[in-house]
Fold this protein.
Amino acid sequence: MTRVHNETRYPEHEVAELVRFAIDRSRVDLAEVKVLPEALPDEPTKPPGRGWVDPLANGTCRITVMPKSHSYLRDYNGPEFLRGSAANPFPVYAWQDWRESLVHLVAHECEHVAGERDESRCERAAVATLEAYQAERTP
Ligand SMILES: [Zn+2]
């Protein structure tokens, strides 16, 4: 059972449900997910939210979600490190709100905890989970 520490002002039950949605579609379980208040990136082309695995405790990750009322389109106009290579490109996606950023970022970090080191592969798995979430939300 994953411990979810919600340090945002978003509702506990909703944050926990979104974390669960992402973990249930991954190959691993996570020991702990800490969801932190949003912070805007220092460059506008970077995603407005990020995730990272605790280097001292694999299976524990931290997520900062996208700020409320923001949206984000990740396309091929961003910085080179977010584009991947021609043979292994990063996928294109859009976040409509903080919920989608949370599902995506948890799914991405699950891939790292499962042992994946290729960012492009982590992103493709995360976008598949994001799209499953978006499909469920759309009536
Ligand atoms: Zn990554």
Notes: The longest strand covers residues 32-36.
